[in-house]
Fold:
Amino acid sequence: MRLHRLRITAFGPFGASQDIDFDELSAAGLFLLHGPTGAGKTSVLDAVCYALYGSVPGARQGSGQGASLRSDHAAPGTRTEVTLDLTVAGRRLELTRQPPWERPKKRGTGTTLDKAQSWLREYDAAAGTWKDLSRSHQEIGEEISQLLGMSKEQFCQVVLLPQGDFARFLRADAEARGKLLGRLFDTRRFAAAEQRLAEQRRAAESEVRAADAELLADAHRMQQAAGDIVELPAPDAEPGDPGLADAVLTWSAVARSTARERLTVAHLALTAADTDRTRTQADLAGVQETHRLQRRFAEARERAARLDERADEHRRNQERMERGRKAEAVAPALALREAAESEHRRAASEEARTRAVLPDGFDGAGAAGLAAAARKATEELGGLESARRAERRLTELAEQRRELDREERTDDELLQDAASWLDGWDRRRAALQEDVESAQDAATRAEHLAGQLDGAQQKSEAARRRDRLAREVAEAGALALRTREEAAAAHEHWLALKERRLNGIAAELAAQLVPGEQCAVCGSTEHPEPMRKTAEHVGRDAEESALAAHRRAEDARTAQESHLAAVRESLAAATAAAGETPAQELAEAAEELRARHAEARGLASGLHAAREALLQAEREHDRRLAAQQEATRRAVARATLRETVDREQGLLERELTHARGAETSVGARAAQLQRRAARLTAAADAARTADDTAQRLKDADARLADAAFRAGFDTPEAAGAALLDDAEHRDLQHRLDARQSEEAAVRSVLAEDDTAAAAARPPADVPAALHAVETADRRVREAASARDDAARRCTEIDRLSERCSVAVRRLAPLRARYDRVARMAGLAAGTSADNERKMRLESYVLAARLEQVAAAATARLARMSSGRYTLVHSDDRTGRGRSGLGLHVVDAWTGRERDTATLSGGETFFASLALALGLADVVTDEAGGVRLDTLFIDEGFGSLDDQTLDEVLDVLDSLRERDRSVGIVSHVADLRRRVHAQLEVVKGRSGSVVRQRGASD
Structure:
């Protein structure tokens, strides 16, 4: 990092703008910043820090974003501003920062607060111009922190080192040194490696513990499956214990062998119990067979005794069966006589019934007399047919008269309704005609408004399109500007890379040289000192990539400008269509027209309905008028018809009075005669039938008596009593057959040899045999259950044992990896016994860097102390802590190594100064480190004597060899004589000012 120029305005004690040219001051390599106390020397350093980080060291920052940094001497209209021009990491940058400013209002009285502002620009050497990079506080802060590689506090300690704080790093503890060195040398990757190893150790430990827990769970399941058969105690270990796997495998082997032994014993016990059950089952079968034969013989004896007891009944059944067979010859005559008797009873009953409903005077009449009376009633009934027709005609005339009355009432109601409706016809017709005319006017008005509405909607739509296109033009313009800037930046970047490549083309050509072959440029075959590529060399690929990016940016710019032109053209068309009237006003006008048009359309929509209503009313008027005329005509016709009906009714009434007689109607008289004729006819028929059935019954009695005598029966009644019906015959035959079958079966059983032999033996004891079989069955079930339990136990133990073996094999590489990772993590963290000094990996790397810093500092410290002191790195442990970042000073006069806290004030100053300069050298030489080309030393020189001061200044002056400059901030008057390049801060009532003098002045 190298400072070029600093401009301070209204900052700290500086009321006006002050310009500081660090290039001129740094030309001599050593310059002096001096001035009276309170003039603002430290404020110059604060301005540098504020420009870089947006804040100043310590309590001088105040609160907020630096509002307290404004100078009290500044004019009200002058804004506080700090601008710093510097080069860092090969880039020329310009930083401008403005803290919050409470300025006077431009209109009115009072003040207003302007927010803090920041600008970051980069100088483009190819174009010779400054290019804006960012105006974001956050982006600028991140960019500067990344380029410098230090926070504000670290920057103040390494570069500014204000107010005698050189000794802070020298006296800092190991942790503070580690944080600063780690930031400067970027040892985060080593800390990340420590963290990664620790995470891997925890992950591997978690995997091992999880696998151990699963293995231990299987062991517990195996113990539950084994129960109490294993005498060896179960493994008593926790997940993570080294001997857990071996203990589980040993216990599982013992459990497997014990379970197999128990299974063999259970199998043998089951075989013995099954043999005993087979024997008892055979014994039971023999006892049951003997018992069955004994019971069979006893039952046969009992059946024979019962047959003897029923012998008389059997003889009676045989006699009854024989009489039944004889009576079967008389059965047809019996059936014929019963049928004749039944038919005669029915005929006599029917005759009695029909005679009971006859009128008086026919009790003793025979069939012939009854038939003659029936014929007479029928003849009288035929004479009433004419009277029936007259009665029906009279009924029709009565219904016709009632219909005429109903029509008269209906026509009267119709005439009244028509008259009432026709009285208001003129008013109704005028109102309907008025509705039709109103709807026609509304339709005309709606058509006129529709034309106006179309134009208003088109104009409103054009206005909205105009406003939208105006916004799109602004956005497209901004985007086109950005694409132009990006295209220009890409073009400048390509030209810069191209120039850098051309500047280093010699190294690119030299890379293609082959010893002994001619050079493509000079033709020489010797290449004593070929140009080497530097870190800043730009290759062909980088240039072509920049050219491609430039072309893409140009294409994007062209496309965006074309889009901008098209949008502008559309905007012009929309503006021409809509004019300058605001879109809201046009929309409101269109909405008003739309409402009026909708209202008119609503009224016009009723035109068809109004016309239909008028047409329907006219039709109704014609219909009612015609109905009124038709009702009048029907009234005249009804009067004539009513007279004719009344005359015919009178004639028919006189005729029917004679025909009805004592009955109420001709129908009633006809019904009476019809019933009498029917009853007489039925009685005559029933009398003839009764006479016929009596004769047939007498013939049947004679035939029955003859058949009974021939069959051997004294009377027909005896033959009928001996006759068996089908059910009695079947039942009697069944009993005779059953008796015969039972006698045969009993004789067969009593003749069996094995049954008789079994009956001769003692009674069989079946319950005792059953009990023996049940006992044997229970023993078999118990033995089978024990065998199944043993088999399941053996299978489960084998399965779990196999799972344990698989888990142990799977656990082996996990445990090996855990041991390896845990050992590496312990070494890196400094907690392993193998790490004797208990030094972390990051501390080990930083210790190497600190050793380099101590060596670089010793070169200057030896000159400052006339060879007396040297700085050495110490990795000894302090107490119970860890070692790695200790610093000691070696006194050449005493030959002893002692702590840096024992140095005097002046010795501490130049020792810490040498350490800081050595630190800057190592950081600069370290690949990827930050080059510190400008350092400031604030006070501390007053503690040196003249000789030591000369030696210190010689050391500082030697920094010019490494193109580095050092600014000394001091009150020591002798330094003004020794250091020619000076920046003097002069204070006054109107604020401080700076005076600059170069080395040649």
Remarks:
- The mean pLDDT is 77.
- The radius of gyration is 70 Å.
- The first strand starts at residue 2 and ends at 9.
